[in-house]
């Protein structure tokens, strides 16, 4: 998705109020954007707290700053500056974190972002965008230029099945129908899970929704999802983020307020480091039950219908 971001931002490079700051990262990916923007592409160095404060100052002068780094470096290191300098003043600063969840694999916990959007959404007027597919990025980028408030863009790896025709972008999208549980997946995990559940018999196959914008607001939950939850009596939420402060908790709270709580609620989320070891992103997903095989097995255990051969 980083390449999709670069290409999308190049389309806005001529805007004189657009400034891009990087925390000394983005090599072999963002050079075309640097060439297009010239002096408005700023390497702020390994000084993320200062980078956020500089961006806040720029926004107060009617510029539109985007700040970029590896996800934990851009939300965890400068958290106080995001809180005090950006959010407390409601400034239009776009914070871009590359490699959400376990994306940086064996580089370990210092490079993982397992609590990023839950942490940031506790700040005033913050919104988070979690594109599921590379094709989502240009649409979200266009929105963020007009968003006029603090925002966090969490990038991952596009896992779209090759033969999938995506529905038009929306914060909530149903990707497949089924008579199994209603399933909501946050962000890029949706691609691999969709590829796996598509082979299931309709009687067990989930009605799969992808969620790409947070926080969850009860008035924005689609009627179609509510109907799917009522029909199956089960809601299954999957996210590569810790449970606390995650999309699952937000959605559960909203449904309770609407008196639409499902009979059964299943939440699969990041569980940290189950074995105490570090490995690839897929290794960590498997340990947490977030990989497509584990998700299918969980659905089959409850619905007991054999997948199509």
- The CATH class name of the largest domain reads Alpha Beta
- Assigned CATH superfamily of the largest domain: Thiamin diphosphate (ThDP)-binding fold, Pyr/PP domains
Taken in chain order, the helices and strands follow as HEHEHEHHEHEHEEEHEEHEHEHH
| Total number of strands | 12
Averaging pLDDT over every residue, what do you get? 95
Number of domains: 2
Structural class: alpha/beta
**Sheet having the most strands:** 7 strands, mixed
Explain how this protein is built.
By secondary structure, this protein is of the alpha/beta class. It contains twelve helices and twelve strands. It has helices spanning 2-10, 31-37, 48-60, 71-75, 79-86, 116-120, 136-145, 189-197, 223-232, 247-257, 281-288, 292-303; strands at residues 18-22, 41-43, 64-70, 94-98, 127-129, 151-155, 172-176, 182-186, 207-211, 213-214, 234-242, 264-270. Helix 1 (2-10) packs parallel to helix 2, helix 3 (48-60) runs parallel beside helix 5 (79-86) and helix 8 (189-197) crosses helix 12 (292-303). The radius of gyration is 19 Å and the shape is globular.
Keywords, separated by commas or semicolons:
12 strands; seven-stranded mixed β-sheet; Rossmann fold; globular; 12 helices; 2 domains; five-stranded mixed β-sheet; 309 residues; alpha/beta
Short characterization:
This protein has 309 residues and is α/β, with parallel strands linked by helices. It has helices at 2-10, 31-37, 48-60, 71-75, 79-86, 116-120, 136-145, 189-197, 223-232, 247-257, 281-288, 292-303; strands spanning 18-22, 41-43, 64-70, 94-98, 127-129, 151-155, 172-176, 182-186, 207-211, 213-214, 234-242, 264-270.
């Amino acid at each position: 998705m980083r390449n999709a971001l670069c290409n999308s931002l190049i389309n806005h490079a001529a805007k004189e109020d657009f400034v891009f700051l990087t925390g000394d990262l983005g090599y072999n990916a963002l050079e075309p954007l640097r060439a297009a923007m010239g002096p408005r592409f700023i390497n702020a160095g390994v000084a993320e707290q200062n980078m956020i404060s500089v961006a806040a100052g720029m926004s107060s002068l009617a510029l539109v700053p985007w700040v970029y780094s590896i996800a934990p470096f851009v939300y965890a290191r400068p958290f106080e500056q995001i809180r005090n300098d950006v959010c407390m003043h409601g400034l239009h600063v776009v914070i871009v974190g590359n490699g959400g969840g376990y994306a940086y694999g064996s580089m370990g916990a210092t490079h993982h972002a397992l609590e990023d959007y839950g942490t940031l959404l506790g700040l005033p007027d913050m919104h988070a965008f979690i594109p599921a597919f590379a094709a989502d990025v240009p649409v979200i980028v266009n929105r963020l230029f007009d968003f006029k408030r603090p925002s966090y863009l969490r990038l991952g790896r596009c896992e779209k099945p090759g033969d999938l025709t995506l529905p038009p972008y929306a914060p909530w999208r149903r990707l497949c129908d089924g008579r199994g549980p209603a399933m909501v997946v946050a962000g890029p995990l949706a691609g691999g899970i969709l590829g796996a559940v598509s082979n299931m018999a309709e009687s067990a196959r989930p009605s799969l929704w992808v969620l790409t914008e947070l926080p969850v607001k009860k008035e924005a939950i689609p009627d179609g999802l509510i109907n799917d939850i009522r029909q199956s009596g089960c809601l299954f939420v999957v996210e590569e983020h810790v449970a606390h402060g995650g999309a699952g908790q937000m959605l559960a709270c909203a449904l309770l307020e609407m008196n639409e709580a499902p009979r059964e609620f299943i939440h699969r989320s990041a569980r940290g480091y189950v074995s105490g070891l570090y490995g690839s992103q897929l290794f960590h997903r498997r340990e947490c039950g977030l990989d497509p095989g584990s998700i299918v097995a969980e659905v089959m255990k409850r619905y007991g219908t054999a997948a199509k051969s």
